[in-house]
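tl;dr need the bound structure. longer version: we got a ligand (zinc ion) that a collaborator sent over and nobodys looked at where it sits. i said id run it. heres the input, straight from their email, havent touched it
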Amino acid sequence: MLTIKTDTHTHTLCSNHAYSTIEEIVRNGASMGMEAVGITDHFSGLFYGNTDFSHYSHMGNYKALPKEWYGVRLLCGAEADIIDLDGRLFGHDLMLPFTFPGQAPKSYQQECLGRLDYVIASVHNPAFTMEARLAETTQMYCKALEHPKVLIIGHIGRAGVPFDMDTVLLQAKALNKMIEINESTFEYPERVTDICKQVAVRCAELDVKIAVGSDAHSSWYVGRFDKAARMLEEIHFPEELIGNRDRASLEMMINASGVRKNNLIQ
Ligand SMILES: [Zn+2]
Ligand SMILES: [Zn+2]
């Protein structure tokens, strides 16, 4: 049985449609044997009805949290929406309704993503891709991977956007970044989970790292990867390509990609 000792994708009460506090997520992560847990609440205009800054202000204050909690390394991240074919993320063009004394005006993105450990970039509303050619959607994912804070492309098989697999996977490899295999996706129909499997097979062939995330929206699901692990075992996925298999390997990916030290606020 594959063992994966970190969970890179979890949602808390701050995502509005999720049900646990950060403490509950971390505590349950500890009981599931997690060595590190990443909090990745939505950074998206989609889930909040409007783009009022109060939905996101918690992301600028993660320094209030301990780095180690219940023996778990707590990582502070976000799941940011990819919002256009240039691979730009939500909040790049929204300016804060205030400025800090002595500082230049900042965008939501600078304030909220600026100091995070890492970001997952996902498509949740593919409407803007509907007319796009494959070259454009492929470019979209490649550009998103170039974002200085993005470490992982989220649930790429479930997003519903066709793309050229080899080009995107090799871009992730070149930048020391990861493609997500998302446990929650295995609740979807087989035509969707089949894409995830194809992605995993190709990652193995091209030597591309994956991140396995629960996408937990309540603490109970933290660190549970049964279905993803079963699929990975079925295809004999090499354990060393699971970039988040333990705390040390995840830290190595964070460092190699440079995402933590890339502070968006200069
Ligand atoms: Zn998502
Ligand atoms: Zn999510």
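gonna send this back to them w/ a short note. DSSP finds seven helices and eight strands in the chain.
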